[in-house]
Specification:
The complex is a heterodimer. Chain A is of the alpha/beta class. Chain A has two domains: 4-236, Thiolase/Chalcone synthase (Peroxisomal Thiolase, Chain A, domain 1, 3-Layer(aba) Sandwich), CATH 3.40.47; 249-395, Thiolase/Chalcone synthase (Peroxisomal Thiolase, Chain A, domain 1). Chain A has helices at 19-27, 57-64, 73-89, 93-97, 115-123, 138-148, 163-176, 193-201, 266-279, 297-311, 321-324, 331-345; strands at 4-12, 33-34, 50-51, 101-106, 154-157, 182-189, 225-233, 244-253, 288-290, 316-318, 347-348, 370-371, 376-382, 387-395. In chain A, strands 5-4-6-7-1-8-14-13-9-10 form a ten-stranded mixed sheet, with helices on both faces. In chain A, a hairpin with a 4-residue loop joins strand 13 and strand 14. In chain A, helix 2 runs parallel beside helix 3 (73-89) and helix 3 (73-89) packs across helix 6 (138-148). The longest helix of chain A has 17 residues, at 73-89. By secondary structure, chain B is α/β, with parallel strands linked by helices. Chain B folds into two domains: 2-210, Peroxisomal Thiolase, Chain A, domain 1, CATH 3.40.47; 220-346, Thiolase/Chalcone synthase (Peroxisomal Thiolase, Chain A, domain 1). In chain B, strands 4-3-5-7-1-8-13-12-9-10-11 form an eleven-stranded mixed sheet, with helices on both faces. Chain B has a two-stranded parallel sheet with strand order 2-6. In chain B, strand 9 (254-257), helix 9 (266-276) and strand 10 (281-284) form a beta-alpha-beta unit. The chains are: A alpha/beta, B alpha/beta.
Chain lengths: 396, 351
């Protein structure tokens, strides 16, 4: 089967509006998580810390010339990242419009960031808002599709917090199976009253900045973001900038509980193992892991155990959720971008806020900026519903 | 692409267990609500907490994941909205209690992947698990996904399905958006020309698929999806689809058309009929199922049923050609005049 390479990247998160800004923040160990919230109305804004992007919707609409009615913040974030990725890859209008260009998006919140509007539209019989066709996840991808006139296979995936990792996997497989010549893959989510209250009702939002893999971790911080990758086949990459190769992907269901992982972490174990199998790599060949590492009691311990089960002595790892917060449906793509940055610049970014190892596992994330030889980097994303996905990127 | 071995369908018609599609249930107030079975095999405590979409999907899939000799290697669900009812119940709580203390049940069930997740959980299936939510292409992407998996790992089995529900909320939103008719329509009046919008439907259709022809009910030979509002593109794409997937000069034996009573989109279906010619039988199904994003999954179920019976109910016929065995069925559907899908469901080669 064809080899698949990343030839364009776009990203926006709480630590930067561009790829370069995100890298700089990672290098400097900067976090975008704070209690100051400007852009979303919630009782918890200003009370709990969030990884908010400090650009207002009006500014995005202006900058991106996206002034049609019915555009949501999730779509604006997606468009912002997509614009950077397409410019970066230098895909032409004709290439975008071709019937073999695929677009695979991912989101969990979609247009439900507008819950006050949705509340009115869902409960009233007349006078619908401008957002009637903007609430579902597909609305985000469909806006991008029509804006860029992308005519190949289009899809949106929602597997909760592993959504955009699955979008990357799905796009890669479309290329390998000959169903597309190039694919633009990624995801977006914005901060929303809906998810904030949902995670709050599960008692897993931390009152402070999250501390992934720390013994005294208190939960996660929600964030927002978007990231897209342009994927192309090896044969079409001649003379192009190549960031990395997508070599591995594994998808498994933990089949244990709707909102927490099993003690042994069968799902995480199997998704990591599956990724190694498709990449034809032995565990010892993985040089670094961008862990799911949400900072919840349950995730970090289970993920640690699963890493120990699979790797024995796990490779170096961190969770960049201490920089960006948990960006839900965007997390898989955001962290794929960070994993690719690890490979391109042969560097590891410091994990933040860690003090003491979890007693039962003893794993310690990397805490300082390090340059080192990296050939294969794994990125983990695990979601509600037991949906676990691991990706492997390799140095091109 | 792959073979379909077992199928189930919960729909507004008698499609589950004792199948009788000759008899036609009518919509009530422009809503085709699913006829829900007693859901054997789902623990009552869990069943009570399930929202409708989860209930429909899990209920339809349970006989396939449990009664098969071999558990599927993966669960692939297409659903445009998942459990929207739970979602809005939670949202209503958020607003009405002004972000106060809330119970998480509705939130956890509100995510679109709750159907595939619950299926994994209840059948202890740790294999591939994914949820496609691309509106009118949700089920179509489930098909593409399974076809790729079978190419990547021959000899495996997958459960694929399409599920969507009518909740009072999405009915409201779609009604406000102009997608449902304002006057009350009966089943037989749905295709009367000159009126915009359609009527609502819901359901779940599930399929066990693999790459083995032995014992298969039918074969899904090909699928093509694209988005356009241009009528000429639809015609060109259909012509190419048929040329590529049928032997030269051959036509499908039946066109299963997604015509939905919306005068704005009739032109696409007419183009399709003109292209396939007046010597093939044309049948419709939305007067049985209503319109919803994953209704194409029920069209595939109907195609399998028609192949099995080599016959179809009178009420489905739009035009009849001289008797011909139903070996190749072309399904053409579009969702909201933008997302077009073409599928070829054929008699399995060994039959």
């Amino acid at each position: 089967m064809n080899r698949v390479f990343v030839t364009g990247i776009g990203i926006i998160s709480a630590i930067g509006n561009t790829l370069a800004e995100n890298r700089l923040s990672l290098m400097e160990g900067r976090s975008g998580i704070s209690k100051i919230s400007d852009n979303f109305p919630s009782k918890f804004a200003g009370v709990l810390p969030f990884g908010e992007i400090k650009t207002a919707n009006s500014r995005f609409k202006e900058n991106l010339n996206a002034k049609e009615p019915g555009i949501t913040r999730t779509t604006l974030l997606a468009l912002h990242a997509m614009e950077e990725a397409i410019k970066d890859s230098a895909l032409t209008t004709a290439e975008l419009a071709s019937f073999d260009t695929a677009l695979i998006g991912a989101t969990t919140v979609g247009g439900m960031c507008l819950i006050d509007e949705l509340y009115r539209d869902a409960n009233k019989n007349e006078g619908g808002s401008e957002y009637l066709s903007s609430y579902d996840g597909a609305s985000v991808t469909m806006y991008l599709q029509s804006r860029y006139n992308i005519n190949g296979i289009n899809n949106t995936i929602n597997t909760a917090c592993s959504s955009s990792a699955n979008a990357i996997m799905y796009g890669t497989r479309l290329l390998k199976n000959g169903l597309a010549k190039r694919a633009i893959v990624g995801g977006a989510d914005s901060l929303a009253k809906f998810t904030i209250n949902g995670f709050n009702s599960l008692y897993i939002l931390s009152p402070d900045a999250c501390t992934p893999f720390d013994a005294d971790r208190k939960g996660l911080n929600l964030g927002e973001g978007a990231a897209f990758l342009v994927l192309e086949k090896e044969e079409d990459c001649a003379g192009k900038k190549i960031y990395a190769e997508v070599t591995g992907y594994g998808n498994s269901n933990d089949a244990f509980h709707p909102s927490s992982l099993s003690e042994n972490g069968d799902g995480p174990y199997r998704s990591m193992q599956g990724a190694l199998e498709t990449a034809r790599l032995r565990p010892g060949e993985i040089d670094f892991i961008n862990a799911h590492g949400t900072g919840t009691e349950n995730n970090d311990e289970v993920e640690s155990k699963a890493m120990i089960r699979l790797f024995g002595h796990p490779p170096a790892f961190t969770s960049t959720k201490s920089n960006t917060g948990h960006t839900l449906g965007a997390a898989g793509a955001v962290e794929a971008v960070f994993s690719i940055l690890n490979l391109v610049y042969q560097e590891i970014y410091p994990g933040l806020n860690f003090k003491n190892a979890i007693i039962s596992t003893g794993l310690i994330p990397i805490q300082s900026y390090t340059t080192t030889l990296l050939k294969h980097v794994m990125s983990n994303s695990f979601g509600f519903g037991g949906n676990c996905t691991s990706l492997i990127f390799s140095k091109a | 692409m792959f073979y379909i071995h077992k199928t189930t369908c919960i729909s507004p018609q008698q499609t589950f267990s004792a199948v009788d599609i000759e008899h036609l249930n009518e919509p009530v107030n422009n809503k085709f609500q699913a006829v829900e079975p007693s859901y054997e095999g789902i623990p009552p405590g869990i069943l009570r907490r399930m929202g409708k979409a989860v209930r429909l999907g899990v209920g339809a899939a349970m006989p396939l994941v449990h009664h098969s000799t071999q558990p599927p290697d993966g669960i692939i669900i297409g659903t445009s909205m998942g459990g929207l009812e739970d979602c809005i119940k939670f949202l209503n709580q958020v607003i009405e209690y002004n972000e106060g203390m809330l119970t998480p049940t509705n939130f956890v069930q509100s995510t679109s992947n709750a159907i595939a997740g619950q299926l994994g959980l209840l059948s202890k299936n740790k294999g591939y698990n994914i949820t496609h939510v691309h509106r009118g292409f949700s089920f179509e992407n489930a098909i593409l996904d399974a076809a790729m998996l079978l190419k990547e790992t021959p000899g495996t089995n997958y459960l694929i399905g399409g599920v969507d529900e009518i909740s009072s909320y999405n009915y409201n939103i779609e009604y406000l958006g102009g997608w449902y008719k304002k006057e009350i329509f009966s089943s037989k009046d749905l295709y009367t020309p000159g009126s915009v919008a359609s009527i609502a439907g819901e359901g779940a259709a599930m399929f066990l698929v693999n790459d083995q022809s032995t014992g298969a009910e039918a074969q899904l030979k090909a699928i093509h999806i694209f988005q356009t509002e241009d009528i000429a593109t639809v015609g060109n794409q259909l012509r190419q689809f048929l040329e590529k997937n049928l032997p030269a000069g051959e036509k499908p034996d039946l066109l299963l058309s997604g015509e939905n009573g919306d005068s704005r989109f009739l032109k696409y279906y007419t183009t399709c009929e003109t292209l396939t010619g007046n010597d093939i039988t044309i049948a419709r199904f939305k007067h049985m199922m209503g319109e919803y994003p994953t209704v194409s999954s029920v069209a595939v179920w109907l195609a399998c049923e028609i192949i099995k019976q080599n016959a179809l109910p009178q009420h489905m016929l739009k035009s009849k050609s001289p008797d011909r065995d139903f070996k190749n069925i072309l399904i053409y559907n579009n969702y909201k005049g933008l997302q077009h899908s073409m599928m070829l469901v054929s008699k399995a080669e060994n039959q």
